Amino acid sequence: MDTDTGTDEGTEAPGSQAPGSEAPVSEAPGSEAPGAGPRRRRTRAPRLRPHPFGLRTRLVLAFLLVAAVGCGTTAALTYRAARNAILEQTQNTAVSAFREQVDALYVRLPADAASLRTDVLRIARQGKPRSWRVYAEYGTLRVSSTDRPTSSVITPELRARARARDAAPHAGFQRVVKNGTPYLTIAVPAVFLADARGTAQPTGLVLYAVMELNEEEANVEAMVTAARDGALPALAVALIPALLAARGVLRPVRELRQAAHHMGQGRLDTRIHVKGGDELADLARTFNESAGRLERSVAELRSAEARARRFASDVSHELRTPLAGMLAVTEVLDEDAGSLDSDTARAVRLISAETGKLAVLVEDLMEISRFDARAAELHTDEVDAADCVRKTLQRRHWDDPDRVVPHLAEGIRARLDPRRFDVVVANLVGNALRHGGTPVTVELYAEGDVLVTEVADRGPGIDPEVLPHVFDRFYKADRARTRSEGSGLGLAITLENVRLHGGTVTAANRPGGGAVFTVRTPL
């Protein structure tokens, strides 16, 4: 049985509560204020994990959460204030009326059961704001207006308070909930005036009034129902501005995402339409300014790259004609070098060798320029892959088994550009012969619908710091080595030719030593 106690004088005693405030006790089920219970804390998802809800859903939920908290807080405060007002009004009316009835009571001492019975019945009929059940206690004498002399609703705490020496002539009260029914219990000790100054002295007679608070509790429950029923339409109405706010936020974000997607596809002239002067509008302006600067920078880079490609192509074309004449002259000089003195013959052979290297460099520059200009084309044909590799080795006179060892799977038909595949194999084998150790192994086999070509050597391998750059143009592993036998473009041209076939080429070191280049092209 839960109790709520107080005195009509506004002073708190142990176990008592002044009017207008509530004691920290339990009430009837369903009378607890909305929102007064403990709230569940929402755990935030890890940042690296994608959120299960979109931004629109989160914005709407946040808006509705704020509206729900506002409605709940307002309803709880309103409920608390109205409940206190209803209970306090009923309580004050009953306490005041009961004390007046007890003060007007004329009691003969020692009291007898018959006279007390008459008095409590009369007081019970005059109860306010509704009828009371009145009980009187005088020593061991127990009298009531009902068929039971005592009430289980009256608590020992209230009895002790009423019989205290300092209780007279004050009234004490308690709000009690028993078996789900709320009650107001009032205790007033009967006193007599001991002298002319009106000093009150207790008579030992204490009268109690018990009144049900069902009507007040029903009014409180009606307020809770009204608050709950009013909160649901309020949340429904709050959904409209939530959707409008989410739309206002998401529209610029969606436009920004679409613009970023277009820029990622290469459309650098993409811009966002700017409206308003808020933070999202500032973001759109910043995006437009950044996109403009990026477009200008990319245009400048593309122009510089085009000029560089055009320069390399023009130089290569211009060099082809004089190189053709120089190669013809050096061939004649090579034939007559045996009839010249040793110094002159050595100079002639040096000029011939350097002219050949320059011719190779010019051809490689022209080839790489075609790749840069997207002018390189494939002329594919269905060929025997092993036969293509054999022809490449025979054409360069790499048929010495001590230098080159082929392991070619027969009968593999692939759709290749024979000329470009010849360049790929020749560049990889030539690179292995120049920079690796012999014998160089050339393996050819099919792996599903992929043609695999591996070129491995027995040299020291490739420095791990060099591996990521072996296909870069003019890259030299030894920075101090400014001259080399190759043009520095062979592996770069190989990479472009493999890509043109839709394949990949990788470089790695073998566990037993040596480098291995692996080309994978679709059959």
Structure description:
By secondary structure, the protein is of the alpha+beta class. 48% of the residues lie in helices and 17% in strands. A six-stranded antiparallel β-sheet has the order 1-4-5-6-2-3, with helices on both faces. Strand 10 (440-447) and strand 11 (450-456) form a beta hairpin. Helix 7 packs across helix 8 (418-435). The radius of gyration is 52 Å and the shape is rod-shaped.
- Kindly state the percentage of residues in helix: 40-55%
Helix count, DSSP H or I runs of 4 or more residues: 9
Side by side, the strands of the main sheet go 1-4-5-6-2-3
What does the average pLDDT come to?
75
Shape, per Cα inertia axes? rod-shaped
- The rounded distance between the terminal residues' Cα atoms is 89 Å
Strand content: 15-25%
Biggest sheet overview: 6 strands, antiparallel
